[in-house]
């Protein structure tokens, strides 16, 4: 298991389970049809947990180009590894989306609304307003990155010896993504991860589907630019406060 492989598999699981819960809620005839926002946000939080558990020991479980960028900006990750990590994340996201399509294909075929089909793959704003949508993605990503910077490990004794939490170490980021989804996600669907939106959007564009509509490439830059901006601001503020 290399770092590249870990990022690929971790991101694949993130999208398989995250986009999978969206498919279960919005596609026609599923057991979870019309499950609602709580089901979707909970599913995404748990998908983060699964992806992080797999990738953390080998790559640090970035699973998100915004996280990789932020860690490089504050000097905690090598710039030379940024490209390979982002490539692994994008490929993993595409693979996860492809698996969701294969799993739910009969339900895609039974779903007449093309917007619901596309929603399984990529985000779409509740109210289309480019500035507000970009700000929403930036703010959600800012919260994600800034809080991650302040995660700490448990310590023992007066010497404050750090101890690991094993797989339980994935719980804090899962809770954080859950909170972002519940509180800030209603405007754009909280991509907060360029690979999470772009990779599946590419798969939507190339896969054959009944009643399929366009992949909304005019909006596709928002869930890329917004998270990059949010991660950059979070990194700058962290370095300023750290002194």
Provide structural commentary.
The model has no long low-confidence stretch (mean pLDDT 93). Helix 2 packs antiparallel against helix 8. The chain has helices at 3-26, 37-59, 65-73, 82-103, 105-110, 114-121, 130-149, 171-184, 194-206, 222-242; strands at residues 155-156, 161-162. The protein is globular, with a radius of gyration of 18 Å. The chain is mainly alpha-helical and 243 residues long. The chain has ten helices and two strands, in the order αααααααββααα. It starts with a helix and ends with a helix. The chain has a two-stranded antiparallel sheet with strand order 1-2.
- Spell out the helices and strands N to C: HHHHHHHEEHHH
Level of helix content? 55-70%
Give the overall silhouette.
globular
Biggest sheet, spatial arrangement of strands: 1-2
Terminal-residue CA separation? 37 Å
Average residue-wise pLDDT: 93
Query: How many strands appear in the DSSP assignment?
Result: 2
Radius of gyration, whole Å: 18 Å
Uncertain parts: none
Treating each run of at least 4 consecutive H or I residues as one helix, how many helices?
10
Sheet bearing the most strands, described?
Answer: 2 strands, antiparallel
The secondary-structure class comes to mainly alpha
Strand proportion: under 5%
């Amino acid at each position: 298991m290399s770092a590249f492989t870990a990022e690929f598999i971790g991101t694949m699981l993130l999208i398989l389970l995250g986009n999978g819960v969206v498919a279960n809620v919005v596609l026609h005839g599923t057991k979870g049809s019309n499950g609602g926002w709580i089901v979707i946000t909970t599913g995404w939080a748990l998908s983060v947990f699964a992806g992080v558990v797999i990738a953390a020991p080998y790559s640090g479980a970035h699973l998100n180009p915004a996280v990789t960028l932020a860690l490089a900006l504050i000097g905690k990750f090598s710039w030379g590894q940024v490209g390979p990590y982002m490539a692994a994340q994008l490929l993993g996201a595409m693979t996860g989306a492809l698996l969701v399509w294969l799993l739910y294909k009969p339900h895609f075929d039974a779903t007449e609304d093309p917007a619901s089909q596309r929603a399984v793959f990529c985000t779409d704003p509740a109210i289309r307003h480019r500035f507000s949508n970009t700000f929403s993605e930036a703010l959600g990503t800012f919260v994600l990155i800034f809080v991650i910077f302040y995660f700490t490990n448990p310590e023992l004794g007066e010497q404050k010896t750090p101890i690991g939490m094993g797989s339980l170490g994935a719980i804090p980021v899962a809770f954080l993504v859950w909170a972002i989804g519940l509180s800030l996600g209603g405007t754009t669907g909280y991509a907060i991860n360029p690979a999470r939106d772009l990779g599946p959007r590419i798969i939507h564009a190339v896969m054959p589907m009944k009643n399929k509509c366009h992949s909304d490439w005019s909006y596709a830059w928002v869930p890329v630019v917004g998270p990059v901006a949010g991660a950059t601001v979070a990194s700058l503020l962290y370095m300023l406060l750290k002194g």
